[in-house]
Write a structure and sequence with these properties.
Layout (H helix, E strand, L loop, with lengths): L5 H25 L24 E8 L9 E8 L7 H22 L5 E6 L2 E6 L6
Antiparallel strand pairs: 1-2, 2-4, 3-4
Helix pairs in contact: 1-2
Amino acid sequence: MSIRHPLAEEFEARLKRVFDRIDCDLEKKYGDRLPLHPARLPQGVTANPEQDGLFDIGASFSPGFGTGTGRSYVVDVNLVTLARVPQSLYEEVLSAVQEKLQRGLQEEFPERKLKIIRRGRRLFITGDLQLKE
C-alpha cells in the first residue's frame, strides 16, 4: 500500500486530464497510421484512454538526480503496435505532444509556471511542481 499526499494526487489527476485530451487528439490524427497491437483494444472501448487505441501517454515523477532538469515529470509517449514505427512519424508525434502538452498545461494549470523541456526523445515537465492548494 502506498500513501500519497492528497495534493499530489490532485495534481496528477489534473495532469491525466491533459494527457487524456492529447491522447484523443492523437488518435484522431494518427490512429489509423499503424496497426494496433493484437492484445490492444480499439480507441474508445475502455474508460481509460491509456488502455486502448494506438497511444499510451503519461508521466512519472522524477526527483531529477543526474538529469540536469531537476525535479520533473518524465513524459512517456508509447505507440502500442508490433509494427516498426518510422522515425519520422515518431518525431512528428513527439513534436505534436510537446506542443499540445505546453498548451494543455497552461489551460489546466494557469496558476503555475510549467514548461516542457525536450532532450532527444524525452519530454520533461518542469517548473512549479510544489504541492500547494
